[in-house]
Amino acid sequence: xxxxxxxxxxxxxxxxxxxxxxxxxxxxxxxxxxxxxxxxxxxxxxxxxxxxxxxxxxxxxxxxxxxxxxxxxxxxxxxxxxxxxxxxxxxxxxxxxxxxxxxxxxxxxxxxxxxxxxxxxxxxxxxxxxxxxxxxxxxxxxxxxxxxxxxxxxxxxxxxxxxxxxxxxxxxxxxxxxxxxxxxxxxxxxxxxxxxxxxxxxxxxxxxxxxxxxxxxxxxxxxxxxxxxxxxxxxxxxxxxxxxxxxxxxxxxxxxxxxxxxxxxxxxxxxxxxxxxxxxxxxxxxxxxxxxxxxxxxxxxxxxxxx
Length: 307
Known about the structure:
Distance between the termini: 30 Å
Structural class: alpha/beta
CATH superfamily: Ureohydrolase domain
Oligomer: single chain
């Protein structure tokens, strides 16, 4: 098994939506022994602490929730991501999904310096393809993929000099997409697989096809794992629960396939809200999934102690 230098980067982003609690996510992952679990697999793990958002002179915009703070997080996390990519495999501990505005921005900049294409695997119940002009809620955790693929409407955010080509993005787990997002997705080249597709064809087939395309061009792969990719019956600690999500078995299969491919170069763990958890149940499951992506096999999983 390939041994990695893994850098844990706390991203206590809680500005991307109105329901608070995700700022406690990084410490929940630490308490659930993410670092220790990965060290047990033979990796070298460095906890770099928590990123702090940049300050800026932006003013709030009506209809957008905590815009200046989210822009500050984006610039700070992009800078941290680009720097950490030179040292190993970064894992961004969220924090709501607005953190990906910065994490993917930074890793894409690093990929550009290497002359390699950036790919993104988005494991999520939602497409997060709103722009600042289409969102009804004003919650900016629903905008990362639009921003990162170069859509308009993000004038207050850092420029995106290296937008991710739409065909390099794959969303798996969709089951809640707003009307404006659906219209834009239909016209885009983003690969998307909703849960009906998964039910009919399985989860391995679309993932395998995507990973084959990443490998064919020596791409770098950022994986963004949202808690609500999972069914809320097994992962309740998220403020955007949507029934009918991935099972524990399906999720572990995805993560083991990622490890087998050797393609993952960075990882987000997002939307964990410990205020909504059941005795750390969701945090421990997310740690288990991260471990599967980095070498733990299903038959190697220890029997969990009663929480």
